[in-house]
């Protein structure tokens, strides 16, 4: 399976902070750009 | 076999036990196991239902194999007079209607006595709930229970309920079933009604049964779907889904491969290059759907949500129509890929999860966690069945140590073959009782 690229687990206060920061669209979009790459979304093939 | 619905049914029939006593034992077990946070609510109507069932058994006129069975359901399914929290701390108002799937179970005589804890919104396969406490995995309290139908699985596995109902948009019935040593079924899309069920997505959510045995899950499915399953069906052509092992832990791979070999002999191996993208497609599908379906709650209650739910829902809102277009295209490719394989095989098999139950970190109890590596490893093999709507079951496939499940995937509407293959595995391995037990 194409699994997401390994990244450090996010827990505790860091997760609380990130959940607040990503309520801001600009920061959210920066994180989404990273997730799109790490999760393989940007590499999804075109359907045959 | 001493676990599951069959011994209860036999005792009811013999008159040595009855549904009222069974309910009282279940409630006593729930009280003993209260600290394990499996259940959020008890259902007041259960006592009347148990008494009515006892009368039917006394007259030797049970409604069917579920009559009098003490069952719990995930707290995202409506039961009139009780809240449907969906795992949150803020959806606390009682609802006024009852989901059709509950009505069907009650019409079959099931005594629904509890609503079970879950991962908030069913958004992760971990089963961690910072608001209500995390259900305790009875196999190892320091490990996650699996989710999102965590309380449903724990209630059965720790001896509180005889069987349970969960929902599954990305492994949420099958992951906790596998991690708790149970059988779980995500049937074909649309086979079980989902009105009155809080959904995470537009078309990935499935309501499904969890129990100790394949027969328990079969009778639950029959009641929930209104269909009957042919138990005489045989499976002969078995294909192994090799991509589904990708990224799984070596000990898990060894255990599942050994079980496949023992149960089905030498099987042909098949690649599924489109299904191998299931994690990314699932993330986009859940993210874009959930940010719309739960978007209003996010605006109103974001700060009251668990940080992991809030974070994922917010990220979902940042995914684009182009992301979704590509994901939908791969999803259609997955349907075609599995359909073609299932014209050559009765069922396809592989691992249900990619690891044994991971450790539960203390910091995660309070705020949840985001661990993409664990999440992918845990649930990636479950996603193809959700994304295609094909039926998939998990059945225990190890004899010692932490439990895990073998996945059996079939063609749409062909639950009979999926369950037939599950019975083959069950005949070799069977259910095991965990060390932590609240039942009598």
What characteristics describe this protein?
heterodimer; A: 48 residues; mainly alpha; 50% helix; B: 440 residues; alpha/beta; 11-stranded mixed beta sheet; 40% helix
Description:
- The complex is a heterodimer of chains A (48) and B (440).
- Chain A has 2 helices and 1 strand; from the N terminus they run E-H-H.
- With 48 residues, chain A is mainly alpha-helical.
- Chain A is flat and about 40 Å long.
- Chain A starts with 9 loop residues before the first strand and ends in a 10-residue tail after the last helix.
- The model of chain B has no long low-confidence stretch (mean pLDDT 97).
- Chain B has 16 helices and 12 strands.
- Chain B has helices at 5-14, 19-32, 46-58, 100-107, 150-157, 174-179, 214-225, 250-264, 278-293, 295-301, 307-316, 321-341, 362-367, 372-379, 383-388, 415-428, and strands at 39-42, 70-74, 111-116, 163-168, 183-186, 206-211, 238-241, 268-270, 347-351, 369-370, 392-396, 405-409.
- Chain B starts with a helix and ends in a 12-residue tail after the last helix.
- Chain B is 40% helix and 12% strand.
- Chain B has 440 residues and is of the alpha/beta class.
- In chain B, strand 11 and strand 12 (405-409) form a beta hairpin.
- In chain B, helix 2 packs antiparallel against helix 3 (46-58) and helix 9 (278-293) crosses helix 11 (307-316).
- In chain B, 62% of the residues are buried.
- The chains are: A mainly alpha (48), B alpha/beta (440).
- The interface between A and B is large, with 35 and 50 residues.
């Amino acid at each position: 399976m194409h699994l997401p690229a390994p990244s450090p687990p996010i827990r505790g206060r860091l997760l609380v902070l990130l959940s607040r920061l990503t309520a801001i669209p600009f920061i959210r979009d920066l994180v989404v750009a990273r997730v799109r790459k790490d999760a393989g979304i940007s590499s999804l093939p075109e359907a045959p | 076999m001493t676990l599951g619905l069959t011994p209860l049914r036999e005792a009811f029939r013999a008159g040595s036990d009855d549904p009222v006593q069974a309910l009282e034992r279940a409630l006593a077990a729930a009280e003993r196991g209260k600290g394990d946070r499996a259940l959020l609510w008890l259902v007041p109507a259960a006592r009347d239902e148990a008494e009515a069932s006892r009368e039917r058994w006394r007259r030797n006129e049970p409604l069917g194999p579920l009559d009098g069975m003490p069952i719990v359901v995930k707290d995202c399914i409506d039961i009139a007079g009780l809240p449907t929290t969906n795992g949150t701390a803020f959806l606390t108002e009682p609802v006024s209607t009852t989901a059709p799937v509950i009505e069907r179970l009650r019409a079959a005589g099931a005594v629904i006595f509890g609503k079970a804890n879950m991962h908030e919104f069913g958004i992760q396969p971990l089963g961690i709930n910072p608001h209500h406490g995390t259900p305790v995995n009875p196999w190892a309290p320091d490990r996650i229970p699996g989710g999102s139908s965590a309380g449903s699985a724990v209630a059965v596995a720790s001896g509180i309920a005889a069987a349970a109902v969960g929902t599954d948009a990305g492994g949420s019935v099958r992951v906790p079933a596998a991690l708790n040593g149970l059988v779980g079924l995500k049937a074909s899309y649309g086979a079980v009604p989902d009105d009155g069920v809080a959904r995470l997505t537009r078309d990935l959510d499935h309501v499904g049964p969890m129990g100790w045995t394949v027969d328990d899950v079969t009778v639950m499915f029959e009641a929930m779907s209104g269909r009957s399953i042919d138990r005489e069906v045989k499976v002969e052509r078995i294909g192994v889904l090799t991509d589904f092992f990708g990224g799984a832990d070596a000990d898990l791979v060894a255990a599942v491969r050994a079980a496949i070999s023992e149960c089905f002999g030498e099987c042909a191996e098949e690649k599924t290059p489109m299904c191998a993208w299931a994690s990314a497609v699932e993330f986009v599908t859940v993210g874009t759907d959930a940010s719309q379906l739960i978007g209003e709650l996010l605006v109103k209650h974001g700060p009251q949500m668990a940080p992991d739910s809030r974070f994922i829902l917010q990220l979902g809102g940042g995914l684009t129509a182009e992301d979704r277009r590509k994901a939908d295209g791969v999803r259609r490719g997955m349907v075609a890929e599995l359909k073609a394989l299932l014209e050559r095989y009765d069922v396809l098999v592989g691992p249900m999860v990619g690891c044994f139950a991971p450790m539960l970190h203390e910091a995660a109890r309070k705020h949840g966690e985001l661990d993409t590596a664990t999440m992918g490893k845990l649930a990636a093999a479950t996603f193809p069945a959700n994304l295609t709507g094909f039926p998939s079951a998990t059945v225990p496939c190890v004899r010692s140590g932490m439990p895990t499940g073998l996945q059996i995937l079939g063609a749409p509407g062909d639950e009979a073959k999926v369950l037939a293959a599950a019975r083959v595995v069950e005949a070799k391995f069977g259910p095991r009782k965990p060390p932590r037990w609240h039942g009598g």
